[in-house]
Specification:
The chain has 5 helices and no strands. It is mainly alpha-helical. The longest helix has 37 residues. 9% of the residues are buried.
Length: 139
């Protein structure tokens, strides 16, 4: 679709993007994700959460119920830490969003985060956890 001045819709949207804010948000989210991965006992939390549902959780490999439930709780942990942190960053520090935009962004990111978490986990986990299980039989 072209406009009268010769521009197109894509360039109109790309001109409105603040790449510095995207880069800063990515950097903060990356650091937070690395800290969560290093310092939060996600495997223990995943086993505890799946145990609440009576799911056999002695091994992750080949156990779809365990994979889905543990992915759900781990995704929610990442979401509960990263999303509010970025909302605070964007609203209080960068001043590039209103409170309504922050809340709407936060609410819209829940389904996307869960979808990305599940899909990436289900795609990459099969090979990764077979390798991990061959190294540590309790995994």
């Amino acid at each position: 679709m072209k406009f009268e001045d010769g521009g197109n819709v894509i360039s109109l949207y790309l001109d409105q993007i603040n790449w510095m804010n995207i880069g800063l948000n990515f950097a903060v989210a990356f650091v937070l994700a690395m800290c969560i991965g290093l310092f939060v006992p996600l495997t223990a939390i995943g086993r505890w959460f799946t145990g609440l549902f009576g799911v056999k959780n002695d091994t992750y490999t080949g156990n779809m119920k365990y994979r889905l439930l543990s992915t759900l709780i781990v995704t929610m942990i990442y979401f509960a830490i990263i999303s509010p942190s970025l909302t605070i960053l964007n609203y209080l520090i960068l001043h590039n969003m209103t409170i309504e935009e922050c809340l709407m962004s936060w609410a819209l990111s829940v389904p996307v985060l869960l979808l990305v978490g599940f899909v990436s986990s289900l795609i990459s986990d099969i090979g990764a956890y077979k390798i991990a299980h061959s190294v540590d039989k309790s995994f």
